[in-house]
Amino acid sequence: RFATLTRQPDDPLLRIIGQHAADPRARKIDLGVGVFRDEEGRTPVMTAVKAAETRLLSEQSSKSYLGPEGDTGFVRALAKLVVGDAVASDRVVGLQTPGGTGALRLAAELMARAGVARIWIGSPSWANHAPLFRQAGVEPAMIPCFDLGTQTFDLDGFLTGLNAADSGDAVLLHGCCHNPIGIDPNAAGWSVIASHIAERGLLPVVDLAYQGLGDGFDEDAAGARTILSTVPEALLAYSCDKNFGLYRERTGALFAITPDRDSGATVFSNLLGLARANWSMPPDHGAAIVRIILEDEALTAQWRDELETMRRRLESLRAALAAGGRIGAIDLGAVAHGKGMFATLPLSPAQVEWLRDRHAIYMAGSGRINIAGFNLAAIATFHDALRDMVANAVV
Ligand code: PMP
Asked: N or C, which end of the chain is more exposed by having fewer CB within 10 Å?
């Protein structure tokens, strides 16, 4: 049977990681993979996470199975933190998932089961969104709505695109720190999107993977809360992998907002069945760490402090990058409009390749850069490399 399969292309970002690792040049800069880095280029385990891990190691008395819903203390604490009081608690159900990806996958399967045929996605989006929904049986429909030159989100274009949606279709929204653009709607934009969605009977699916890395922890949930408090039904896929630095522990949750407690119980029973058929139960370690942190005031304060330091680092690097101003056709100043780890520069694939070959600067072929891959010296190098690119008329 395997002979019927066709060979699939490598993930282009993984290829860039390999090329970067093999590059002997000392001044090489890695802006590719989407993980937070400190000034020395490390992705350290957060101190609060280490402390919770130590406690877990000494206090955990059993590794017996939990259940398809995972760690319910984790889910409860996270719901309080994320949804807050935007929605009455009897309208919220949730379960632990393997990362934000697992949450999105489960959301997609629930949608397919509920007869949702299509999901509208502002484009470009995280490269995994479209294939993930398509493979679960929900067809992605893309709405181009970003201008890279001015680094702006075209709200009117997005809403106009949504006019083609049928009632019952879904809409994907990046809760904050848009990947790969870094540009989010402002507060007024979120309100307009929320009413537009509610009026047309669309199902919002909020992907919140970077809470705390944009404007601040509660500020970054404001858009999601506006949506959740406006509509009768919604899904929220949450990742703890960036804001707790847990990446490989695969820590996330899926929340469903339902019209009432009874429909919530029905949705939850479907989610449990789908989770059971996918992974039976989610991996425990990351969720247990997050629960220990969130149930302990001192650890929570420590984690929030560390997260704020990470957020500030991103903010200052973004400002330093933007200070490069206009270089040829590229207005780096506009990058200051964005938030979080990513920006996508208006570079052609040929320019991206030239920067890699000539200056050992590695980024995705789309021009997406991970701002955490910089330090101040690397930003100066990057500005010089862009000037050199313009001087050499590379297009
Ligand atoms: N959504 C977005 C927008 C992301 O960027 C990512 C991670 N790159 C995810 C979801 C998935 O996160 P996780 O690693 O927790 O699966």
From this structure: N
